[in-house]
């Protein structure tokens, strides 16, 4: 599906494989990731399509909002800077 020229807001896709653990563990990882993006949505570019794929060696019992924030916040901030820089240069 192609995005229209009119920005609809950012979108999030999560791909948590069975190798991560049981359904309960996978759902917990997804809940924590969704919460991170909900709390930091003001930092995300409006037209971003984000796909989060947790690392294979991830131990689901250790996933916390603090750990996810520590890992992803620098990446999200860099994404925002790139989007701002692109918009300033007039690139599509």
Indicate the topology.
Blueprint: E1 11-14, H1 23-39, E2 49-52, H2 65-89
Parallel strand pairs: 1-2
Share of helical residues = 40-55%
When the domains are counted, the total is: 1
- Output the CATH class name: Alpha Beta
Task: Work out the radius of gyration.
Answer: 15 Å
Architecture, according to CATH? 2-Layer Sandwich
* Largest sheet report: 2 strands, parallel
Mean pLDDT level:
85
Q: Structural class of the secondary structure composition?
A: mainly alpha
Give the overall shape.
elongated
Question: Strand order across the biggest sheet?
Answer: 1-2
CATH topology: Ribosomal Protein S5, domain 2
Number of helices: 2
The low-pLDDT segments are none
Strand content: 5-15%
Tally of DSSP β-strands: 2
GO molecular function, one term: ribonuclease P activity
Keywords: Endonuclease, Hydrolase, Nuclease, RNA-binding, tRNA processing
GO cellular component, one term: ribonuclease P complex
Protein name: Ribonuclease P protein component
Give structural notes.
This is Ribonuclease P protein component. It comes from Nitratidesulfovibrio vulgaris (strain DP4). The chain has 92 residues and is mainly alpha-helical. The protein has a single domain, classed as Ribosomal Protein S5, domain 2. Helices cover 46% and strands 9% of the residues. It contains 2 helices and 2 strands. Strands 1-2 form a two-stranded parallel sheet. Helix 1 links the parallel strand 1 (11-14) and strand 2. It is elongated, with a radius of gyration of 15 Å.
């Amino acid at each position: 599906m192609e995005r229209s020229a009119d920005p609809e807001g950012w979108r999030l896709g999560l791909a948590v494989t069975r190798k991560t653990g049981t359904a309960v563990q996978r759902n917990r990882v997804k809940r924590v990731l969704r919460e991170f993006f909900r709390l930091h949505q003001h930092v995300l570019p409006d037209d971003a399509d984000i796909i989060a794929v947790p690392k294979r060696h991830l131990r689901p019992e250790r996933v916390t909002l603090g750990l996810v924030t520590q890992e992803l916040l620098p990446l999200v901030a860099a994404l925002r800077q790139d989007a701002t820089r692109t918009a300033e240069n007039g690139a599509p």
